[in-house]
What does this fold into?
Amino acid sequence: MPEVAAIKWWELVTGQPSETKTVQARTRILQEVGPLKDGLCNLSLECQQQRIDWLFSPTLKEKEELTEFPTFASFPDGLKLFKEMLLPWFGQCPLATRLAFGATLTQSVADRKAGYEILGNFLPAVKLDPENSSDFSYQINRPRLSTCGISGLHVNRLSRWSVARLSGMLVQFSVGQQISAQTFESNQGLNACRLELDINTAPRTEGTFDRKMLSAIVQELVDLGREIAAKGDIP
It folds into this structure.
């Protein structure tokens, strides 16, 4: 990876400078954050010696009451934005030994019982008791052999299912060395089914991926995540 101070990836991807940029030259850490699409969401980039993370996250307006779980788009629209902004970057990013795609999806529900009833439709291997249970959390990895053309490549398909309740949240904002915090609240509390996806290539001994294959691998990870969101926990 190039020297962190010389990295211009955030600007390359978005076509504009980031809102904040932090460089720790000694530890070789770079952090950049800024809004996208007229404030639709935030995009952050974090580079460490052996890892690069891109993250899309919702924006929260000051003193705004929470009326739903924070989000910035439907899953299809979020994937469209991800592919539009980041897939071209994989054609020139550093060589990689592993790749991962993650997402957190929510669906608003009236209460815990309604949430468990919905989760039951996505978890055929689990018998849920919506009336007489609580604190349910189900996590599973169902690996698959990759179909992108790399022999022996396995993909981990981790998913975690739960029903979450949110009455408020404390968000920290940092600008340079200044850190401030703000509380966002919901008067009545919010409930939502929650799915966390972590789709990643398994560790391998063959070294880095061919750069020409990176976009195809990422597309496969995205497609596997989309399949879980649509069909639930399937082999």
Notes: Residues 61-231 form one domain. The mean pLDDT is 92. The longest strand covers residues 178-201.
